[in-house]
């Protein structure tokens, strides 16, 4: 099968490598011609995923037509906030039934839309989401993990899962597209919180309590956004929450860590939880859901609350039933 990967950042490159290991042929598109030239010359993506040879099954290209003309499926791997800009550029090159696998983890800041909602505004092609615990650096090096491919049409999700799976990349399928997307988008907000708690030296007990209560908020809000609560128990919800809330390898956790230590965040890598937190807080209000951790993250990011005050506010909320 020939796959196109749109976006040659860390995750796009890692997914291209995963597909190549699954014996697919891959066109890896980047908007930056100089980066493509460098990838062709050096055989690696030194900018986004250094030290991992791309191999002969991956063709880097800056030409969308070359990337998409013979693609049988397309993985869209650009940040959530740029999807609205990128997706319309693909449309003229796409045959109607080519599946689009959305791999961004975020909610659009200005609209509250998940990636598939944004895509639905510009395309009638079948939409899927690939999500789950998977650091680009791990997947790029061929370390083992399991992820999930979600689509309303679970048979199609299963087909894409089979094409992407290899001995080191195990893809499950799920018929709950919104659930798969919502878990991946929201877990980043809690990774910011967990990182901030670690940076502020609040201790391992606080971390565990925060992640557990964060999971309750995640499940509540995701369910209101249309997720099946069972999906949230899986790889794209609990699985990814556990990964990103426990490792400084996560860019969201690392961003939170810097916040908690009072360090500058300038120059840090993409942290999708930052634009997602505020809109998630807004959606929680809209759906009448209690989300004190999402609110605290939003207020801290906006500079309206210190971490000390957030801890006090969370700890002194009225006592209540555990309500999971
Ligand atoms: N890095 C990781 O471990 C994982 C990342 N993700 C998700 O994948 C998405 C992408 O993340 P990364 O690749 O890691 O980020 P990155 O920052 O490494 O790369 C983003 C890529 O998107 C490109 N891009 C940005 N705006 C664009 C535009 N308007 N037009 C064309 N290309 C554009 C950039 O040039 C860059 O190559 C995010 O939503 C992230 O949450 C998901 C799983 C793992
Ligand atoms: O989604 C990820 C792992 O599953 C990557 O998390 P970060 O974007 O926080 O690095």
TrEMBL record:
Its main location: cytoplasm. Sn-glycerol 3-phosphate binds at residues 105, 132, 134, 187, 240, 250-252. InterPro entries: 6-PGluconate_DH-like_C_sf, 6PGD_dom2, G3P_DH_NAD-dep, G3P_DH_NAD-dep_C, G3P_DH_NAD-dep_N, NAD(P)-bd_dom_sf. NADPH binds at residues 11, 31, 105, 136, 251, 270, 272. The active site is at residue 187. Belongs to the NAD-dependent glycerol-3-phosphate dehydrogenase family. Residues 3-156 form the Glycerol-3-phosphate dehydrogenase NAD-dependent N-terminal domain. It is found in: Cytoplasm. Catalyzes the reduction of the glycolytic intermediate dihydroxyacetone phosphate (DHAP) to sn-glycerol 3-phosphate (G3P), the key precursor for phospholipid synthesis. This is Glycerol-3-phosphate dehydrogenase [NAD(P)+]. Pfam families: NAD_Gly3P_dh_C, NAD_Gly3P_dh_N. The gene is gpsA. Pathway: Membrane lipid metabolism; glycerophospholipid metabolism. It comes from the Bacteria. Residues 176-311 form the Glycerol-3-phosphate dehydrogenase NAD-dependent C-terminal domain. Keywords: Cytoplasm, Lipid biosynthesis, Lipid metabolism, NAD, NADP, Nucleotide-binding, Oxidoreductase, Phospholipid biosynthesis, Phospholipid metabolism. Its EC number is 1.1.1.94. It is an enzyme of class 1 (oxidoreductase). It catalyses: sn-glycerol 3-phosphate + NADP(+) = dihydroxyacetone phosphate + NADPH + H(+); sn-glycerol 3-phosphate + NAD(+) = dihydroxyacetone phosphate + NADH + H(+).
């Amino acid at each position: 099968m020939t796959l196109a990967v749109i976006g040659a950042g860390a995750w796009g490159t890692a997914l291209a490598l995963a597909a190549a290991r699954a014996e697919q042929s891959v066109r890896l598109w980047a908007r930056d011609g100089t980066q493509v030239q460098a990838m062709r010359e050096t055989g690696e993506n030194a900018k986004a995923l250094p030290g991992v040879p791309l191999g002969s099954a991956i063709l880097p290209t800056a030409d969308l037509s070359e990337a998409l003309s013979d693609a049988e499926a397309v993985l869209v791997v650009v940040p959530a906030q740029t999807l609205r800009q990128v997706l319309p550029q693909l449309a003229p090159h796409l045959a109607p039934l080519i599946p689009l696998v959305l791999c961004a983890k975020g909610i659009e800041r200005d609209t509250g839309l998940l990636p598939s909602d944004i895509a639905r505004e510009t395309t009638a092609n079948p939409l899927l989401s690939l999500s789950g615990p998977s650091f680009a650096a791990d997947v790029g090096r061929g370390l083992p993990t399991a992820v999930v491919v979600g689509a309303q049409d679970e048979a199609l999700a299963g087909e894409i899962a089979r094409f992407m799976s290899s001995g080191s990349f195990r893809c499950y399928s799920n018929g709950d597209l919104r659930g798969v997307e919502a878990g991946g988008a929201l877990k980043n907000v809690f990774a910011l919180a967990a990182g901030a708690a670690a940076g502020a030296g609040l201790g391992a007990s606080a971390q565990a309590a925060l992640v557990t209560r964060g999971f309750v908020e995640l499940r509540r809000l995701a369910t209101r956004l249309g997720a099946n609560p069972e999906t949230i128990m899986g790889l794209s919800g609990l699985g990814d929450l556990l990964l990103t809330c426990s490792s400084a390898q996560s860019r969201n956790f690392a961003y939170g860590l810097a916040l908690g230590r009072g360090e500058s965040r300038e120059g840090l890598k993409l942290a999708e939880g930052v634009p997602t937190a505020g809109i998630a807080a807004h959606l929680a209000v809209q759906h009448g859901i209690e989300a004190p951790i999402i609110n605290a993250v939003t207020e801290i990011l906006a500079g309206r609350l210190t971490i000390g005050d957030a801890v006090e506010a969370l700890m002194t909320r009225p006592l209540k039933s555990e309500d999971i």
